[in-house]
């Protein structure tokens, strides 16, 4: 009965934690979006200026529209996506103008331009964005007043769209920028969130507080969005470096950050498993010994986040994480029962993941752990399905 009475409070606690996490992530997104939004707005204004002053068009609506559509408000601009949007926008405007000039406007023309735009876009490229944009822009042109069609000539709007799309692609590919800066920031954010998860879990183990362990699991689930952004940013950086010769020197670090993003995803999955295992362990009382290990890992990860954000060698964080690995000696928990032993096993797997993020190989990372005798089984996140609400049957170390 007491547990049932506490459920509303737990629900409010989870809700408040989600809200704080979302607010922090939203503030971070707004901060990251400011400069890209200014750049995209400037590109749209420049596209308008080129079409109006250089091409002499009186209503260059599609020049800024295409530029903003292609660039948007995010710095994670995939060149392929920018190209798809630009080609789709230009193709749709051109087809819309062609149909409007030959057949006029009306529902039949809307139907025809959508079918033709879709079929032609599928021939041009496999990208879905290109197809959608071709159809949408064709509709926009067909639906515009007839007076707007003749203001700048029969194909004035098509050339405006081309100006905006070409300018957007040039900005995305060649605007002087440090292609590595954005992946670094995403890496720092993701590793900091992982450190917060482990700090919260350590506090729960120190106090024997099951609710804090559940809070850590909530943080782990909310971190997935940041990890996905990191992976996408690294992929975009690779595309930019491939076409911009001035950024070839960043290739090595981009590869390292790509590897780290994969390892971080695995580490967070492992951390969520740790949080679920910790829930059962804290029921027996506080565990300050395990809390110290988690605190050491959290401290090392905070250092690692700063090092990744600056592009520094992760020497200091690697030392701190190695010290944390040395505390996970199976012999210290031999008599604590299988729930604690399982938790320690997953912690050992987690510390191997984070040591690899810090630059170690898997083999070298495992050598930092105290020896495991034949009575212990290595447990990894792959041994536990990452259920959102409950675990499957627990896997116990061999006796």
Structural notes for this entry:
- By secondary structure, this protein is an all-alpha fold.
- The chain contains 15 helices and no strands.
- It folds into 2 domains: 2-174, no CATH class; 181-383, Methane Monooxygenase Hydroxylase, Chain G, domain 1 (Up-down Bundle).
- It has helices at residues 2-54, 62-71, 79-103, 107-124, 128-143, 146-151, 156-174, 181-207, 210-222, 224-243, 251-282, 288-310, 315-326, 338-357, 362-367.
- It starts with a helix and ends in a 32-residue tail after the last helix.
Walk me through the topology.
Elements: H1 2-54, H2 62-71, H3 79-103, H4 107-124, H5 128-143, H6 146-151, H7 156-174, H8 181-207, H9 210-222, H10 224-243, H11 251-282, H12 288-310, H13 315-326, H14 338-357, H15 362-367
